[in-house]
Write a structure and sequence with these properties.
There is one protein chain. Helix 3 packs across helix 16 and helix 9 crosses helix 14 (about 395-410). The chain has about 450 residues and is an alpha/beta fold. It has two domains: about 45-240 and about 430-444, 3-Layer(aba) Sandwich (Rossmann fold), CATH 3.40.50; about 245-425, Glycogen Phosphorylase B (Rossmann fold), CATH 3.40.50. The chain contains 16 helices and 13 strands. Strands 3-2-1-4-5-6-7 form a seven-stranded parallel β-sheet, with helices on both faces. It has a six-stranded parallel β-sheet with strand order 10-9-8-11-12-13, with helices on both faces. The N and C termini lie far apart (about 55 Å). Helix 13 (about 375-385) links the parallel strand 12 and strand 13.
């Protein structure tokens, strides 16, 4: 059985699917994290900084950093885009937040139109002006910006240069490369030319930045091409907030409320955009159609989610459940409801995109199943830490076989889950992460 299934799986996967010799018991209670000492009095007032942290997407890790730096005595203004249809982190002030933390949301006249290129371009330019206004009002000592559309980012870079404010480019994706590839497919020669403009724009801003924090060394060749000196670059991988995504029991309120408590669940949560292939979830649903124990659960909204709902109705796939985005406070329960947590990414996105949802999956302590390019950082994390299975994105049959294999092997799932959680607990300690950011910001 073991060998027969292994032989059907990609050679890279085969090297990772080894039988564990020992599997520890699952920790099902929320944990008390070590190293959570009070850091609010570590700085002399004269040493504190006014830092504007901008994250267009309002991701959990960036506001987590903002809270950490404010605990250390820095004055933090956190800014994000409230007009995007996507899940966000804890971007509202909470009881116990330091007085030096302020959170500002930018609202456009309507939701961002992701798939209407002209309208989106207009919105991103308007967003840039609103972001500049936030910078101008806060008057920071330094700006740290990530996930920002290039037109909007250019407005902020220009403002910072005019006013001699140090700018740190927190590089999450190579957006110019992504734009060129997507627009070339949609608009052919014209798209290729527009994409080249954005590629050059991004490279120029990386040159202009006072410092670049890159989430992966995969971006180093592009930075070298941009003539960004290596001493102005530091690699700090992304993380997920451990204390906000604790490892919870499989039997939890969200699972019970949604009829998943007694099912075997393959779960995906997050955006389904142009760099994803929702068809993989349809393949899973069709394969497990006759198995009443299995559910394929997708928590998403937008184009990909709407497409899945249509396929569910058209093909009568009652085992495919599509939920809207859930409140961030429910994320830990949602992830705990999965027996296997999934992420997908198309081949052409492998160079410029790192699926951050995989990091929350690590915190949840569940095995991962990824259909992503094998060279992608998330793939290397999963394979290198033996946290799950990775298959190439263009192989739906292999994806289905890997899912079936994981569901049939609870001991292996437990082994992968424990390895995933161990990696998160060791690597996602916000005190250590905050030290690295603070050192950079104080010397720029």
């Amino acid at each position: 059985m073991w060998m027969a299934v292994n032989l059907c799986i990609h050679p890279v996967i085969l090297s990772r699917l080894k039988k564990p010799t020992q599997v520890g018991s699952r920790a099902v209670a929320a944990v008390v994290f070590e190293g959570a000492e009070d850091r609010s009095t570590l700085l002399d007032p004269d040493e504190s900084m006014r830092v504007l942290i901008h994250d267009y997407g309002g991701y959990p890790f960036s506001i987590h950093l903002g809270r950490e730096l404010s605990l250390r005595g820095h004055e933090i203004c956190y800014v994000y885009n409230a007009s995007i249809r996507k899940p966000m982190g804890a971007v509202s002030l909470r009881a116990g937040d330091p007085g030096g933390l302020s959170i500002h949301s930018i609202h456009l006249d309507q939701q961002v139109q992701r798939y209407a290129f002209l309208k989106r371009w207009q919105q991103e330019r308007a967003y840039g002006q609103l972001l500049v206004r936030e910078v101008d009002q806060f008057r920071p000592d330094i700006v740290l910006s990530c996930n920002c559309p290039l037109d909007a980012q250019q407005s902020v870079v220009n403002y910072c240069q005019r006013h001699e404010i140090p700018f740190v480019y927190w590089l999450q994706d190579l957006l110019g490369v992504a734009a060129k590839r997507i627009l070339r497919k949609k608009l052919f020669l014209v798209g290729s030319l527009i994409g080249e403009v954005y590629t050059r724009m991004e490279l120029k801003m990386l040159q202009q930045a006072n410092f670049v924090i890159s989430i992966t060394d995969d971006f180093l060749p592009s930075l070298e091409m941009s003539r960004v000196a290596r001493e102005r670059v530091e690699i700090i991988p992304n993380w997920a907030p451990l204390e906000e995504t604790p490892r919870l029991p499989r039997q939890n309120p969200w699972a019970q409320q949604n009829g998943l408590a007694d099912k075997m669940t393959l779960l995906y949560t997050g955006n389904l955009g142009m760099k994803h292939n929702p068809g993989l979830f349809v393949h899973l649903a069709e394969h497990f159609r006759k198995d009443p124990r299995v559910r394929i659960v997708v928590v998403s909204e937008g184009l990909g989610a709407d497409w899945l709902k249509a396929r569910r109705a058209e093909n009568q796939l009652d085992n495919l459940l599509v939920f809207d985005y859930q409140p961030y406070e429910k994320l830990a329960e949602v992830l705990a409801s999965g027996d296997v947590l999934m992420a997908v990414l198309e081949n052409e996105a492998g160079e410029f995109s790192v699926p951050s949802k995989a990091l929350a999956y690590f915190c949840a302590g569940r095995p991962l199943l990824l259909a992503v390019p094998l060279k992608n950082q998330a793939a290397r994390l999963v394979m290198g830490n033996e946290a799950g299975v990775v298959v190439p994105p263009g192989c739906p049959k292999t994806f289905v076989l890997a899912a079936e294999f994981l569901l049939q092997n609870p001991d292996l799932r437990e082994y992968y889950a424990s390895k995933a959680y161990s990696y998160a607990h060791a690597g996602f300690q916000i005190g250590q992460i905050g030290d690295r950011f603070e050192q950079i910001l104080t010397r720029v």
